[in-house]
Design a protein that fits this description.
The chain is mainly alpha-helical. It contains three helices and two strands, in the order E-E-H-H-H. 57% of the residues lie in helices and 5% in strands.
Amino acid sequence: MNSLPEPVRIVQLPDGTYTYADQLPATFQPAPGPQVVHQHIHQAPPDRTVQRLALGSGIGAGTVAAGVYFGPLLVGALTAIAANLALLAFLAVALSWGVVTVVKSVGGPEGKAAAKTLARARRKGK
């Protein structure tokens, strides 16, 4: 069972350039005989579905080019923002832990009594 799509045929034009068979000019006459085109098997032809849909809907090539250019930039910017927020969250947790540790160790008996009172109040409230 072959789940791969039908490959797009590549043909050589009389001027020596290559093009996809589905984009041939109306005046093109194929050369007689077998045609050998060297193509690496592991390199799939470019997927032009999104470009075809975008251009077919009338938004224009400039908009498609802008999406191709600015799309990765937007992903990079959002990733950098997320990394900065993660770093700030880590610093907030670390500093809070440090403050709690220092207050517990320096608080003395009054701090321990206050902590017990708060713990009892929390238990009664549940």
